[in-house]
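Fold this sequence, please.
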Amino acid sequence: MLSDLSGLLLFVRTDMMPRRRGSKKGLPVVETSMPMKDALRILVLEDDDNDVELIRRCLSREFPAATLMRVKTRASFETALGQRDYDLILSDNTLPGFSGSAALTLVRQRGIDCPFIFFSGTVGERPGSVNLQQDADACLSKEEIRRLPSVIAQVIERWLKKVPRADIGQTMGDAEERYRELLDSVHAIVWRGDARTFQFTYVTKEAEVLLGYPVERWLKEPDFWQNHIHPEDRETAISFCKKATEEKRSHEFEYRMIAADGRVVWLRDVVRVVLEDDRPKELFGVMINITERRRTEALLEGQKNILEMIAVGTDLTQVLDRLTRFIEARSEGMLCSILLVDEDGRRLRHGAAPGLPEAYIRSVDGLAIGPRAGSCGTAAFRGEQVIVTDTLSDPLWEEYRELARQFGLRACWSTPVFSTKGKVIGTFAIYYRDPRSPTLSDLELIERAIRIAGIAIERKQGEQALRQSEEELRQANERLQALSRRLVELQEAERRHVARELHDEIGQLLTVLKMALEIGLRPDRADAADNLKKAVALVSELTSRVRELSLDLRPGMLDDLGLLPALRWHFERYTAVTGVRIHFRYSELEGRRFRAEVETAAYRIVQEALTNVARHAGVKEATVRVQVRRERLHLHIEDRGRGFDSADGDGVHSSGLAGMRERALLLGGDLRIDSTAGSGTRLTAELPLLNAAKPERRGRIPAQSTGETGKTPGAHGSPS
């Protein structure tokens, strides 16, 4: 028996160890008897994601099946130490609120027998010798990352040598027990079996630890191995092993076995064929648990597929559905949900939840975000992860307890999903139908899920924002084109108006003037003097008509004195011509000048609005209010006349109303019309005063102590 056990140990120490390889690029040649290099369990204490990825890549070739459990804080480090044993601890030297030295002290105080290596994630930083004096096994800086695999191998080699060997005078029984202890210390199932029947004749205690079946069953049941291979892998695995054994060929293969509790465990089986008389007699093997490696590979593959869906523009609903189904497949009984923050940031809307009941989904769709709004609403409110292990007792679920009871949802862990700018854009939740807390694996899975969800949601929001911007640009272009056409139309209309005035009014007067002058210059005519007097009167009338035409085109007072005097002058003239009395109220206008384009737009809007009042309202009075508030000029013109239906597009665009709106829009302002047939019309305009001048004057403004226009009975104005 001793020779059999020593043969197994020799197999573990040779076939399963790193082979000697030639030196490459100055790297040292390493030969070690480190047990189970591919099954290493490494605890990594590191807060920098980039350094963790650097470590993972560096170890991937030398230790492809190594399991890396990453933690960031003292609390998670202590939790990890209590959950399982590790073959190696790899620690950063400096962490927020914690340190590698403190971690090493904690490990030694707890009596944990495990190699400890410092790895500094900052270029140029190297842990001081004090750490080595505290019993660390090695320390590396970031520049030395390529040496990490060889250093790990050397450290574990030294660590194994601490195991005392049997003295020469030790009894055979003691030696056998030592061999058993050494084999049982390996984190893998070391086994021996019949080469013909595949029945086990020896397995280490790890078999019971890993798969849960007593060692006695492994040894007594003739077809134990065959019967416990996963049904989907059984035929292939048995055929492969049988063929390789018949060919006297040592072999490696991967397959799944079903554990006693129903778990699926991935194994890599490394088998050596032992010959007797050149015929296969026994098989020596080591079953290495590669479940974590397979799980990581599946996670990476699934993550890649979902990211590809995002990259090609797959609909967000389909992406989130695939993501939640992918995460749910990682754990039995897990139910996932993704909720999206709505546009106003006050509620959560359904995103994806393929495993949750439809009635429950409808109940939480539109969930208000708040400090006690279950797991998801609270997580979105706080901007941090919320772990509720039992919904029936947690105060955060007080308002939703009956809902949870109705649908049998007992645990709910919700994590906010952030945009790249740090804004909460959704939540990712995991439900279970029994009370429970998340494991480190669960937390790692959640981190992956929220990263992918954040990418998908933010890309969708970016696409929506882009489409909205494109639509707004298209509408702006259409408005600009319409405005350009309208300006041309207005310009042509104004030219036609001037042409008519010149032809119909001034042209006729000039013709009559010419005739009067011709008669007046003939001394033989008895009515010559009367015609000269008539010519003088015609000249006066022509002068008046030209002045009126000039003022209609643009009043000089607006340029010389500013908006307030121009409006007062216009109201007096307007009342004299139309008989409509104006009640004028204003504030913050005294002594102020604004940009020329603002004063022009304001004057024209008021002028056109009052023209419409005179033409269509059928009233004897109207109200005009002009105010400056928050760097905006507010215009309000109101009458209580006939009005019109403001919902009627044609009505709104008639009588120059479209022109007024266009003037406001050109300045980045706004113009609104509220009118109802029989109830009058209210026009409100706002014009921005950016870069508006302070009381600086482009023209002299007469001092006004009260703001009263009062020059004529038709116009009243006062500060308001």
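The chain has a mean pLDDT of 80. The domain at 295-447 is CATH 3.30.450.40 (Beta-Lactamase).
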